[in-house]
Amino acid sequence: MVQTDNVNWYVLYTAPRAEKQVKTRLDALGVECWLPLHHTPRVWSDRVKMVDIPLFNSYLFVRCTDPKLRELILVYGVVRIVYYNGKPAIVRQKEIDAIKDFLAQASEHPLCPGEEVEILCGAMKHVSGKIRKIKKNHLVLYLEQLGATVCVKLDDVARVNRLK
Predict the structure, then answer these.
(1) Are strands 37-43 and 8-14 parallel, antiparallel or unpaired?
(2) Which of 5, 90, 98, 160 is 20 to 30 A from 154, comparing alpha carbons?
(3) Quick check: helix, strand or coil at residue 59?
């Protein structure tokens, strides 16, 4: 006899850009769910803003029983349950913990002097420079291309990811 009252972590696939709304709906139903978010700069034509975006686009983790999981397909914004080998994919707790640890380490890694960043807006948009000093809300950057030192708001730069 198969036991169906085990509580496991499962994965739901949501409509595009609907992860946060689906999480809100699931929370209202009392379903334990987790949406891993990361804090990142987003650039608009007139400003740069730090926003929380999903780590995995269109995916949401839920912790429930198998029968309850099958009811969640009726929640507006849920497209389907993610399957593996013909059964709903079960995510082990250690994998959930590993993602949480990764997000915690990533958020604790601040910018540091000597690191290269790119300016995201303004007259110096797309110019990169090395951090000389870090103040409360500003960075002092050395722009090698121009041979100049400038002061830039912390929210107006993003780390340059160079492959070595």
Answers:
(1) unpaired
(2) 98
(3) strand
Q: Which two tokens stand for residue 44?
A: 């608009």
CA angle 34–77–59, rounded 5-degree value: 40
**What does residue 27 show for φ and ψ, rounded to 5 degrees?**
-60, -40
Shortest CA distance to 31 belongs to which of 54, 59, 55, 8? Answer: 8
The backbone region for 98, taken as left when phi is positive above 0, alpha when psi lies in -120 to 50, beta otherwise, is: alpha
Query: How far, in Å, CA of 90 to CA of 4, rounded?
Result: 13
What the block records as the tokens of 100 is: 């949480």
**Residue 24 structure tokens:** 């809100």
Cα 50 to Cα 137: distance, rounded to the nearest angstrom: 13
Q: Using one digit for the tens of pLDDT, what is the confidence trace for 56-79? A: 999 999 999 999 999 999 999 999
Torsion, Cα 78 79 82 83, to 10 degrees, reads 130
* pLDDT tens digit sequence for 12-68: 999 999 999 999 999 999 999 999 998 877 777 766 677 889 999 999 999 999 999
